[in-house]
Amino acid sequence: MKRMQKLLSLLFAAMLVLALPAAALAAENPTVDYTGQENQFVFSNTGTGSSTDLFVDFKGVMPGDTLSQEINIKNSSAGKVRIYLRMEPVKPEHKDFLDQLQLNVTSSFGGTKLYEAPPSEQDGLAENVLLGLFYPGASITLTANLTVPLTLDNAYAEQTGDVVWVFTVEEVPDPTPVPTPKPSDKTGDETNLTPWFLLGAAMLLVIAVLIVLKKRAADNE
What we know:
By secondary structure, this protein is an alpha+beta fold. 15% of the residues lie in helices and 35% in strands. The protein has helices at residues 92-98, 194-220; strands at 3-14, 31-34, 41-44, 66-75, 80-87, 102-107, 113-117, 129-134, 139-147, 159-172. The longest helix has 27 residues, at 194-220.
């Protein structure tokens, strides 16, 4: 069993008062791809300035905003894997700001709700949560919705908060094949018929002796 971990920092760059334009949106969803090569994840379509920033749409937000970000989780390796997700505790200096926001995360795999809390809390991601069993080429989509309250105070202008997610992969070996019995192998419940043949032969012998004795007795009369 092989396990690896990759830390990624999700940056909420919230220019909440200056009304700065949001960063340009990525052409495709950010993707976390387990390739199996050197047991690593590959991140693509991430935010500007960070190779692991998956929240490219959560930039330049304003009070009252409700933003959504889709993140693809994929297995490009040649084998089956289980992929898990958990969240690290936030830094103390970011907690007060992140307390003001609300983050919901759901999975396209069965519509499972993974997280629903201020991003300052670990909620359901305090421990590893299984995202699914991924066959080669399989993928799911995580949808994150960020809500910024309209009443957010100006004191949080230009504040940022880091949320650290940890992805863990577990490679699943194929089960050991059950050997097929060879033609010479004995299987099932077999009965030894030799004693029955011997008993039958003895009975026939007894019957033959009785017939001979009976015939002799008839001749003597």
